[in-house]
Amino acid sequence: MLKTLVTKVVGTRFRREMKRIRPIVDAIHAHEERLKGLSDAEVRAQTEKFRRIIGERTGMLAAEVERLKQAKHDCPDAEERLKLTDQLAKAEAAHAKEVQRVLDAILPEVFATVRDACRRLLGTQVVVTGHELTWDMVPYDVQLIGGIVLHEGKIAEMATGEGKTLVATLPLYLNALAGRGVHLVTVNNYLARRDSQWMGHVFQWLGLTVGCIDDTDPSSPERRAAYQCDITYGTNNEFGFDYLRDNMVFSLDQRVQRGHFYAIIDEVDSILVDEARTPLIISGPVGTESDEKYAAYKADGGGERPPRQGGAPDRRRENRLRRRAAALQGATRHAEEQEVDEVAAGARRETAGAARRARPPR
Q1: How far apart, in Å, are the Cα atoms of 121 and each of 35, 130, 199, 338?
Q2: Which residue of 68, 70, 254, 350 is most buried, as measured by CB atoms within 10 A?
Q3: pLDDT, tens digit, 9 for 90 and up, residues 22-39
């Protein structure tokens, strides 16, 4: 009864969300009316305009992040590096927050640009997995709403035929403008190839680059180039194994992925629930004493931390070893006490049994 009354007063969550998003959709349509009077070249120039806006509003924060990264790389003192690490984490968080704020501000005009580009491409030909198709899609309002929800990091549930593939173009284009790379994760390589070529027709017209990692070999220059594109399509397994391989390389220039900024997961229930039941397992070669790097590591004492400058002792390491020794000593003492208790209990049981056997029958 109370729930029904509250629902009547404040409305359902769906209606509250629609009330919040509807003004954004109206703003998108207002921008689109203005874009209709521009030439194709002027619409394409919107991409550089958006990137310039993002750069102007976040440039100082991005420069501070790079400065701290370089300072941390060049710093020889461990204590100072810890301080720089904290400062870097705060600077990166501030930069990411400001980028998000700018993207939210330009979202209506960006979505209007994508919608207008789709309208201008009507009737054009695009080759998708070897078949020539005619572009005939322009996002409807329900797809604009889905794009807004996906940009906000939420789950958008859409029925078959509502155009989920086209919906993804809106937030992908918006977040790719930040220049940090965005990913679309799907369930099989056919969809990854198809969507990268099909939706790439719009992205490339707007001046963005599109790659598909399923068209390349693992750890190859071609795969690294696919990750360097503005928008990268691929399957969940390929993205996962690339991440694992990148954590097994000997130098940073051997990695293929760059930083993780924004991703859309197609069929999220399948990938994060069903597919997640099967772990990704990878193995690599084990070093031997004949290996040069293994021998150098072993000669260095197993990779122990080098002594501090000026011969000063590493107090934190000493305290850590002292605590570890105390913990081991405590565990040993506890095991000895438990063993003594068990022996005493066994002796008491034997004594009680002997007493029962010696008791005369009634």
Answers
A1: 14, 20, 12, 79
A2: 68
A3: 999 999 999 999 999 999
